[in-house]
């Protein structure tokens, strides 16, 4: 599977961009999956539901299955946070896995940057950033992509991972 990532500060537009890219990539006949890393605690379950109760009782994994989808929840408890490679190994085979986050993991990434947000650029701290998508032209040496042109960004990604 080919893997390509996105890095940027919270609120920079990573999720919105990825949401716009997926249909474009799928229209080219590609099967696409996504891994999103979060630094915050999260829970897809709800208190009071059977699955929540099973986890609270101590189950290591709870798998919910239905006619439209299935989801596996794994409690880390005292285990270390899984690496990106650990996560990739759990996915079904697809053509392209998009990754949001995992800034330090050595995969090619586009930095999403909006100067108006007031955050510094990241590319000088993370050598795997291969391009910058911004809503404003920047004075940088890396390729610059128009954040408002997901078609251009999709083609850049496809060429970068030899799927074009």
UniProtKB/TrEMBL annotation:
Residues 3-135 form the Molybdopterin-guanine dinucleotide biosynthesis protein B (MobB) domain. Pfam families: MobB (PF03205). InterPro entries: MGD_biosynthesis_adapter (IPR052539), MobB_dom (IPR004435), P-loop_NTPase (IPR027417). Gene3D superfamilies: P-loop containing nucleotide triphosphate hydrolases. It comes from the Bacteria. This is Molybdopterin-guanine dinucleotide biosynthesis protein B. It comes from Niveibacterium microcysteis. The gene is mobB.
């Amino acid at each position: 599977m080919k893997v390509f990532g996105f890095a940027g500060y919270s609120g920079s537009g990573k999720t919105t961009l990825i949401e716009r890219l997926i249909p474009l990539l799928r229209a080219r006949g590609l099967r696409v999956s996504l891994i999103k890393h979060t630094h915050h605690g999260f829970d897809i379950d709800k208190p009071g539901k059977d699955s929540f109760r099973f986890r609270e009782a101590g189950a290591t994994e709870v798998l919910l299955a239905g006619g439209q989808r299935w989801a596996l929840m794994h409690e880390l408890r005292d285990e270390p946070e899984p690496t990106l490679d650990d996560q990739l190994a759990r996915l079904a085979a697809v053509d392209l896995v998009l990754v949001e986050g995992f800034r330090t993991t050595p995969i090619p990434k586009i930095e999403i940057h909006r100067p108006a947000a007031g955050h510094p650029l990241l590319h000088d701290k993370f050598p795997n950033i291969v391009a910058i998508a911004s809503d404003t032209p920047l004075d940088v040496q890396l390729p610059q992509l128009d954040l408002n042109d997901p078609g251009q960004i999709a083609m850049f990604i496809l060429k970068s991972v030899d799927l074009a």
